[in-house]
Structures are given as C-alpha cells and as structure tokens.
Amino acid sequence: MIKIAPSILSCDFSKIGEEVARMDACGADYIHIDVMDGHFVPNITFGAPVIKCFRKNTDKVFDCHLMISDPLKYAEDFAKAGADIINFHVESDSPIDETIEKILSLGCKAGLTVKPATAIEEVYPYLDKLSMVLIMTVEPGFGGQKFMADMMQKVSALRAEAEKRGLDLDIQVDGGISLETAPVAIEAGANVLVAGSAVFGAEDPSAMIEALRG
Ligand code: DX5
Ligand code: ZN
Q1: Residue numbers annotated as active site
Q2: What CATH number corresponds to the domain at position 29?
Q3: Cβ atoms 10, 209 nearer than 8 A
Q4: For the segment 161-171, what is each residue's pLDDT rounded down to a tens digit?
Q5: Helices 16-25 and 205-213 meet at what angle, rounded to 10?
Q6: How many structural domains are present in the chain?
Q7: Which residue of 13, 99, 154, 174 has the lowest C-beta tally within 10 Å?
Q8: Whose CA is nearest to atom 6 of ligand 1?
Q9: Which domain does 182 fall in, by range?
Q10: Within 6 Å (CB) of ligand 1, which residues are found?
Q11: pTM for the full model?
Q12: Residue 162 phi, psi dihedral angles, 5° rounding
C-alpha cells in the first residue's frame, strides 16, 4: 500500500491546527512535518512547542523530518511534543548510532534521511534499526522545487538491499512529488510519498491524495 504524507510546509501557518485536521479528513496516512533550524538548511520553520500545539488536532502519525544540525540534542523535545517517526539527516553533526538509540528509547520510530549528494550506502549500516529511510528528491530547505529523477537509482538500490535482508522498510521520497513523478517513485520502490505543494495546491486534496497513490 502506498502511503501519502502531506507536508505542512505548504499549509497556511496561521491555521496550522485546522490544516492538519483537514489533511486527516482528506485521507492522509502520515502528516509530514518539516523542521528547519536555519543552520542545517537555509530556512527556519518551527520547533517542538508548535508541534505540541497541533498534536491536539489529529491522531494521525506525525512523521517529523528534522533538518537540523544536532538532532540528538532535540530528539526528546520532539518525542514529547508527539512525534511518532523521527527522521534525521545522515549528514547532521550528531552521532548516528546514539541518535537512533535515543529516538527508539523515547518510544518513537527512527528514520534516516539522505540529501541528493549523499550515497545511499551511508544508511546501510543502520538499516536493521530503522523503520524508514527518506531519500530527498530535492535539496532540503524549501517546498515547490523540481523532482530529481536521478535519485531513483538510490530508491531501487535501497529497495533491493531491504529485500535482500528481509526488512519491511518504509522508503520515503520527498520533494517535487506530483501526478507525473509519483508513479516514477513508486516504480523505483518508494512506498511513502511526501507531497507539499501537490496536495495543498490542489482544488480537491482528497482526490489528489487518492490519485497520488496510483
Ligand atoms: C523540503 C521539504 C519537503 C517539502 C516538499 O525541504 O523536506 O517536505 O515540503 O514540498 P513539495 O512537495 O512542494 O516539493
Ligand atoms: Zn520533508
């Protein structure tokens, strides 16, 4: 089953609680939450206190994508705010093993994320402990960018590796997902699609979520 994770980066931040409830009602599987610190990426969004506020508006899985330099330092804050999955970047400054252990000890699922320039093999040593790998299909930092089709080699290599090891791994793609690019990502082996502008820009977000599933 293909899961759709609307990215609230594209929502109206003045009514973020209503927006996540709307995505829940529209059939989203996960709510994708982009946290940016203005250091790891050249943009700032929001942190744990804000997530805690809109946690009240839905029971959906909160899929937190931490684009921050020190995820180990803040993992507990995000877990307490209501994160279900905590994705952090393999390129961050935190020790990877320790950060995964911390996330798991907090009762959350752990995910590792790779930027476009990072080889997928970087996540292989940690796969057994991960629920998800997030393969960026744009440079992290902003919504509305163009899908990088050459990232699909990483998706298929990772799917093959997960199958070889018998792992039930969520492979998520993030950036530029649309009705044209979703089938390409699914064909390569992705099973979770983040969609910001495609869903929030749609006249009928429910229909768009269904259509993106293919
Ligand atoms: C980019 C974020 C994405 C972004 C995707 O740094 O990680 O989640 O919101 O937006 P679209 O779907 O518009 O490319
Ligand atoms: Zn994201």
Answers
A1: 34, 174
A2: 3.20.20.70
A3: no
A4: 999 999 999 99
A5: 50
A6: 1
A7: 13
A8: 140
A9: 3-213
A10: 7, 9-10, 32, 34, 65, 138, 140-145, 174-177, 194-198
A11: 0.98
A12: -65, -40
